[in-house]
Amino acid sequence: MSTDRRLVDAVLLPGFTGTTVPDWLARAVDDGLAGVCVFAANVGTDFPALTRTLHGRRPGFLVAGDEEGGSVTRLEHRTGSSWPGAAALGRLDDPATTQAVAAAMGAQCRAAGIDLALAPVADVNAEPENPVIGIRSFGATPDLVARHTAAFVRGLQGAGTAAAAKHFPGHGSTTVDSHKAMPVVDADLATLRSRDLPPFAAAVEAGVRSVLTAHVLFPPLDDRPATLSPPLLQLLRRDLGFDGVVISDAVDMQAIAGTVGRGPGAVAAVAAGVDLVCIGNPANGYDDEAGYLEVRHALLDALADGSLPRARLADAGRRVAELAGWVRRAADAAVAGDVPEHLGHEVVRRVAEVSGDVRVGPGPHVLDLTGPANVAAGLRREPLLPAALRRRDPEVTTGRALPDTGRPLVVVATGPTPELDTVRTARPDAVVVNVGFPGRWTPPAPSVTVWGDGRAQAEVAAELLKGR
Known about the structure:
The chain has helices spanning about 5-10, 25-30, 45-55, 85-90, 95-110, 140-160, 190-205, 230-240, 255, 260-270, 290-305, 310-335, 345-350, 385-390, 420-425, 455-465; strands at about 10-15, 35-40, 60-65, 115, 160-170, 210-215, 245, 275-280, 355, 365-370, 395-400, 410-415, 430-435, 445-450. It is of the alpha/beta class.
């Protein structure tokens, strides 16, 4: 195999299809591929067997995955996450609890064979209408987000799983989801320094091993999105003193794939200072091997024509190899601690806000107005609240039609909508369960606000609606 191909493969993190190792991926691992990013569709009934196979092919191979807790989980995508998510942890505002939750998640990742959890979200959710961050953020103020970002990093990495603070320099003030289009934020450097950078500085101070970039355009600072911007990535290196691995957000997201393209985007990202290119999720509509080869060929061509310096690629590969070495040492040194039973549920119980009498009688009907799942949340087999309620009352029903007035009605929502107004007019007795970011809305009574949309939130909401 050529030296150039090894240099390129050492900075790539593709996704793949299925719950076993495809032939192309096995060959790539053997040839020096840095790692893979797993998604919900890769997590089958024996996921640890899959990761053992991957790790067994080559020492230092990295398995990464989005494991944030709350609404974003890969390991628990069928049932929803047992962990409360960032919004609930920020609302509780007990960094020791955040660290304990992250440590438990880190141990869960290690047991499953995930080396690198793409968490925590270090974005300050300063825009209440943000369509992609919201409950994934610890909150709307820099100090709050900073202290919980640092606590989460310490907990996760103390359990032997590398953390990735994201999305640098900040995705919290957008009104566009970068999975779908290019977000634009008209923030100057002073605003970034005061509003968005403190949580990343706290993550660096806590020893975070990697930082993941944002596909967000900041026109006052550069005409390229942060992932492709040398000046913005230099803020991380020069101003914050970070010397670990810079990971791109997935280049198959429309902010990159729909503008410059996956291959050219990967080249520009590495040239700008990215060390590890996350290619993305083939479930978004492309062949897994073809997506990997497209990016690899683009990097090889750039290396051949001199537009991508060999030294830059070698430096990126060095950092990725150092991260893999840290993972091996940290996993060996990690000490399993006692995790309080039902820790995630306890966090949600402590932050849940109840207005009015929310108890419902037999056979409630659940009307879910949350809309399509956030792309970052990935696959989910069944809405979580109906499943939690059915464990207490098998007569629970779901559907878009309003039930007759003799049946209790529960409405799940993330914010005010005309449809919700119509429902509440017809059924003022309906209990609203708010699973969105509470900064944008306080639902009228009777209502329950649970600070997130994971299984822990659903279980606590069910307790409040039906009793333990």
